[in-house]
Amino acid sequence: MGEFYADLEQKLEKLRDEHLFRELKSVNGAPAEWVEIMGKRLFNLSSNNYLGIAAHPLLKAAASQAVQQLGCSATSARLIVGNYELYDQVEEDLARFKDTEAALIFNSGYMANLGIIPALAGRGDIIISDKINHASIIDGIRLSGAEFLRYKHIDMVDLERCLKKAADYRRKLIITDSVFSMDGDLAPLPAIVELKEKYGAILMVDEAHGSGIFGENGRGLAEFYKVTDQVEVTMGTLGKAFGCSGAYVAGRKVLIDYLHNKARSFIFTTGLPPSVLASVQAALQVVQEEKWRREEVLDKAAWVRNELIEAGFKLLNSQSQIIPILVGDNAATLEFSNRLFDVNILAMAVRPPTVPLNTARLRLTVMATHSNEDLAWAVKHLKKIGQELGII
Fold this sequence. Notes:
This protein folds into two domains: 22-53 and 291-388, Aspartate Aminotransferase, domain 1, CATH 3.90.1150; 57-289, Aspartate Aminotransferase, domain 2. Helices cover 45% and strands 16% of the residues. The protein contains 15 helices and 14 strands. It has helices at residues 2-17, 57-70, 78-82, 85-98, 109-120, 135-144, 156-165, 189-198, 221-224, 253-262, 264-267, 274-289, 292-311, 330-342, 372-388; strands at 27-28, 34-37, 40-44, 102-106, 126-130, 147-151, 172-177, 202-206, 233-237, 247-251, 322-328, 345-346, 349-350, 360-365. A seven-stranded mixed beta sheet has the order 4-10-9-8-7-5-6, sandwiched between helices. Helix 6 (135-144) links the parallel strand 5 (126-130) and strand 6 (147-151). Helix 13 runs parallel beside helix 15. The model has no long low-confidence stretch (mean pLDDT 96).
């Protein structure tokens, strides 16, 4: 047994030597525009609470009322007795919001992809995935048993090469993030749709970072590009722009009925608690009524991007509320993050395996509720420390 723990310690030591060790830091109080960590009050540039509604009064009131009326747990899987009426109501609300026939809620985005993908593809099928799709997509593909091809990131020539190679498979499933979580760039959905139809494939789009942000109604990047009706499977999360928890898949009723019967991460999981469902219902209302939030977050992110590009930072091809500052070296990225922490800015270092080798970066995220003054102050420090470290 001592050998087992010694092996674990040796592997942890290797992570420390490579500047890849991770540890939890407790946040004191609610995570908002400013947070307290290790006794320091920090400007929060690391949250996925893009619209700033996680502490919205409507969400909190809805969650509190649901606890009083329905308790704290679903008590079982939904196919047993965990499917209380609020679940049906919220899924109907989600379907209306997404303008689809039906919707299904999962406990998290990770669980959604681990359930949806193996349900839709298996042996005899092939899945074609963008090279930097989220880890949950990759793990869902591995569980499926289907053949797997990766195309170069947002490279439509390479996607077509993969589709030609996949000609003889029974089902061809293309999967892409809409907004890529570590690069902040956008999938070229119109071009993907064109190739999908040309080669008889089906398309699944993960709108985790697009839902609530893009499109006239906040439905996501597919709405922004006006290709919603040509996407067979739309998945998204509720713990980012919606400020809640969980995830969803939306589409035709036959798809949702099929997933009720085949998505193992749905079938064998206790349902979400009533407080979460009630907060999702309130968040859908806020997202639709307070359009200014998505306008603000994209406008503010554009201003930050322009300032950082002019200063000489490498931001990859960010076009969203996610702004990566490419550094490359793990140690240098950690140093940049730590120096910002010292001046009360929280900008987390992202390192392999979350991103490819030699592409470590700071991942900045802008919130609709960040003040212009605070953003300008943070950008000033980013430039100053970036120059001092030789990054710009």
